[in-house]
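Email to the structure team, subject: Cytosine/adenosine deaminase model.

Hi all, the expression group asked for a predicted structure before they design truncation constructs. Nothing fancy, just the tokens so they can compare against earlier work. One-line instruction: predict Cytosine/adenosine deaminase, return tokens.
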Amino acid sequence: MSHDKTQGTERILIKGAYVMTQDGALGNAVGDILIANGKIKEVGRKLEDDRARVIDGRGNAVLPGFIDTHRHNWQGALRNLGPAWTYKEYRAAIQIGLGQYFEPRDVHIGNLTADTLSIDAGVTTVRDESHISNSPEHTDAAIAAHWESGIRAVFDHGWPSTDAEEWQFGSSRTHPDDIRRVRNDVLADDSARVTLNAMLRGPEMSTPEVAEQDIRLARELGLRISLHVGLGEWGAKQQAIRQLHESGLLAADMTFIHCCTSTDEELRLLAAHGATASVASALEVFMPGLGQPATNRLLAAGVRPSLSVDTETIVSGDMFGVMRAALAYQQLVIAGAAGPMDREPGLPTFDAADLISFATIEGARACGIDDRTGSLTPGKEADLIMIRLDHPNLLPATDVAASIVAGGHAGNVDLVVVAGRILKENGVLKGGEAVFEQAAASRDRLFHAAGMPLPA
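Reply from the structure team: attached below.
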């Protein structure tokens, strides 16, 4: 089943922008981009096309859209509830407390709300880690929202948030079999705008036997795999990456999320097998109990990580904050004030240009879609954003990458294009105004159903 009727058919020519291609052969330069049939047709200087609509890119940076490789979209209507929550408090309030009361309509509006904010902030691809598979109807509602919003989505089918405690940390339950239906009947096309991955629990959240069965199921269905690992003291004890290596299951089709307390040896094993990683740096510095961002240790192991938001109940749903948090924590590493796992001398460092790479092309690689997006390479899907460099918070934009990372926010994102279709223009989202009223109604219903008082 494909819903790609929304792919852009308009020819668009962006002129005179500072183009940050994330393509090593093309580099960065002031120039033009021609979009045709939903794809990037040409990148160069003094391009002309009599049939194209011309967009003035002067004073702007054009770059691939940000790729968020790990967000629990279903929580979109519950954003900003607990910025001071610990991991234990988050699980108790959201996954255990409210997750069981979600109806399919709540999942739909949660996903749509998260997608809308993502697009507004320049995220053109989201990897939706969906552990709200309470029923097939819940799953279908989540997927439908991605088609509706226009975002590019990698839907990671997960487990239910009913009986939440029985699905994590030593669980003997195997992955819900409904993933077969989704693969065969709902998201069978791996070239579509919305595609399917498997969000598995691995040996850290289930048992070695269950982990092996789940992984073999995902591979039987031809799906890439994501796993949360290195979660606090439990992750350090379990060493899930090491377990997977020893059982012969560790492979390049896996993305490991967090890795906060994964050992340096585990990270080297991850790199040796060609697997990828997702760092949720803002969440990891905000939420006690997980550990610290592993960005520098991953680089030391030979892994260029991707970046992710995780949950909007704790942190802002934009990649600007995620990039800044990663950089802020690196400064603690350099100062010798970081967590105990980051005190090895000589850890490699990264800069603003690296962070934009982590948030774009490395995100595409983690999702297995770098052949289609993540860089402004001719022939790829036209997923791109334009950022106003003439806004007061970014002027004089001496170093463009540094300006975007240090000072950028969603209000600077002037244009968002996904598959050649314009979703935000002149700083204004196209449609979606009603979604936030629906989000408030969903939030109220969920709190009422759970018997929980709304915060004053």
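The longest helix spans residues 104-120. Residues 4-64+376-425 form a domain with the Urease, subunit C; domain 1 fold (CATH 2.30.40.10). Ping us if the truncation boundaries need rechecking.
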